[in-house]
Amino acid sequence: MQLILNDPLDMHLHLRDGEMLHTTAPLSAHSFSGAIIMPNTIPPIQSKEALLSYKQRILEAMGSENFMPLMTLFFRRDYDYEFLSNIRDELSAIKLYPAGITTNSEGGVSGFDIEKLKTPLEAMSELGIPLCIHGETNGFVMDREAEFVPIYEKLAAAFPKLKIIMEHITTKESLQALDRYENLYATITVHHLLITLDDVVGGMLRPHLFCKPIAKRGEDRDALVQAAVNAHPKVMFGSDSAPHPKSAKECPGCAAGIFTAPIALPLLAELFEAHGKLDNLQGFISDHAKKIYGIKPPKKSVILKKEPFTIPKNYGDIVPMHAGETISWKISQVQ
Ligand code: DOR
Ligand code: ZN
């Protein structure tokens, strides 16, 4: 059995910078046509100069692959119309992190006072720049995402022309919000479609499955799977593939992030096939995102075959999800 995916897109990707970029960029560029590149580097991407030079480093690191890095800025309250219109053509979205909520997000937003967010969000609405949000409060870890839903709703109501992407959603509460506001959209990772908190901490602790937001209950995972396999048109694939060196994962104070970029497509094929919905993977992996973001990525066909594939134990210094395990689909060709 084989499956052809056209122009796969990863609408939430951490490539990092420096040495690690040389491992991550070619892997994503090989099997994806484009990706939304997250800006939580050290330092975060907050100026046109930083964005353009990061893009250049990505293009150099990815080699000769046909791949479009869709660049983002790290949200700041002092971005105004003039600043944003000057960078508009280089920018695909702006990513907002609540302060300190995850890796390198210390410079994020604290408190969601609409008045204080008005200048940048009105400018983004006018310029048609989507706002990507890591939607978690500082509450109890299992409740953080559900507690953030009213903030999503407040923003969606206050800025009806602004496209708001609820990133890496993990709960049924977030899915329900999609139906209440026209301008809310969502990304879902492959790991949140496959694991629950039991897989992370229910037996021996598995640091390579630790991420933010943490995986939730079975019923949440099942609701996400239903939305993805039934091709909910407001839901897109975003891997949130978030590499950390092995030494930062296998230690006390394990960093949050799961590395899935090179194995995401085979894992998704396996999942969609198990639900008898292989035909719907094209929408989830590309068509919905093209429509929501209004983008035309370079043409690429990825041919997947139903053949056993053993996930490498490591990619350089990075341990992927399910390292060493054998799955039933693999990428056989990219054209
Ligand atoms: O697990 C995560 N890792 N979640 C995020 O939101 C950020 C990411 C990272 O950058 O490491
Ligand atoms: Zn992320």
SSE arrangement, N to C: EEHEHEHEHEHEHEHHHEHHHEEEE
Biggest sheet: strand arrangement: 2-3-4-5-6-7-8-9
- Strand percentage, roughly? 15-25%
CATH topology: TIM Barrel
**Main β sheet profile:** 8 strands, parallel
Structural class: alpha/beta
Distance between the termini: 18 Å
At the fourth level of CATH, the homologous superfamily is Metal-dependent hydrolases
Low-confidence stretches: none
Ligands: (4S)-2,6-dioxohexahydropyrimidine-4-carboxylic acid, zinc ion
Supply the CATH class.
Alpha Beta
The number of strands is: 13
Whole-number total of structural domains: 1
Number of helices: 12
- Helix coverage percent: 25-40%
Q: Could you report the average pLDDT, rounded to the nearest whole number? A: 97
Secondary-structure arrangement, i.e. CATH architecture: Alpha-Beta Barrel
Radius of gyration: 18 Å
Principal-axis shape equals: globular
